[in-house]
Amino acid sequence: MAHQDAFDGRLPDVFRQFERLTLDMPSPGVLRVTLSAEPGRLNMVDVKMHAELGSIWRVVDAEESVSAVLLRGEGKGFSAGGDLSSVQSGIDNFNDRARMWKEARDIVYNILNCSKPVVSAMHGPAVGAGLVCGLLADISIVAKNAKLIDGHTRLGVAAGDHAAIIWPLLCGMAKAKYFLLTNEPMTGEEAERHNLVALAVDADQLEAKSIEVATKLARSAPTAVRMTKYVLNHWLRQNQAIFDLSAAFEMANVSSGEAQEAIRALNSKTDAAFDRDSKF
Q1: How many domains does the chain have?
Q2: CATH number where 214 lies
């Protein structure tokens, strides 16, 4: 509790390395991580943010002044998902695809293995790469009017960055298949009803509730909380092979014509015309 008694709100210097994540400490022991892209982009995950979302959890784990994390999005939404230019670079370049695959694994495994509990607060759109962190948080809280979409098959790629490892566990296989295969949107209220998230609250209560929960965790018995998180996450670790295969399939799809056609259709606001002669 010593770090709480001496709390002055200053951010430890180790966190100043991050550019796409705005960091502050709203209460003792709580690190608030805010996804922060250029204005008007709804916190779309570009190359830099993707890398930082993979690396920050190791820094959090090692920083003694942090007891809990609150993850949120800046402005009108949590995250609009991956930047299409990043997907295009993966289509064009093998080394970019390899980097994307490694960072996708880092995001998932580093969140799971971070000893500190993570609370997410999702509002507005929560899509793709941003949704990964929101749903892998230990306690996920959404605004009732939030809009959750996995988004991967719409981009012509397999749902490979987190969904296969956690959606069936949270909401059941039938609902997981429905929402991941069709890309139907889900409101925050529906997500709570389907057990995909822990809590859904009115939008104007989201910030206060998420800080309340994160602060409660920061004040709890640290070893007990961290050991409980570690044990519960074995449900996910024991399915590591499922995640690794889904991530590999996603990268295989990135190099396919389906991803290229999906991006063309999104950019031109027309329907995609996929080649139906799949050999898979």
Answers
A1: 1
A2: 3.90.226.10
Q: How far apart are CA 207 and CA 129, in angstroms?
A: 21
Model-wide pTM > 0.90: yes
- 123 and 143 Cβ atoms separated by less than 8 Å: yes
pLDDT digits (tens, 9 = 90+) for 186-195: 999 999 999 9
Q: How distant is the alpha carbon of residue 88 from its chain centre?
A: 21
Q: Is residue 273 part of a domain?
A: no
Could you read off the pLDDT of 125-167 as tens digits, one per residue? 999 889 999 999 999 999 999 999 999 998 899 998 899 999 9
Task: Report strand pairing: 30-35 vs 21-27.
Answer: antiparallel
Local confidence band at 3 (pLDDT 50, 70, 90 cut-offs): very low
13-47 burial, b at 16+ Cβ within 10 Å, e below that, comes to eebeebebbebebebbbbbbbbbbbeeeebbbbbb
- Indicate the burial class of 157 (C-beta count within 10 angstroms; 0-12, 13-18, 19 or more): buried
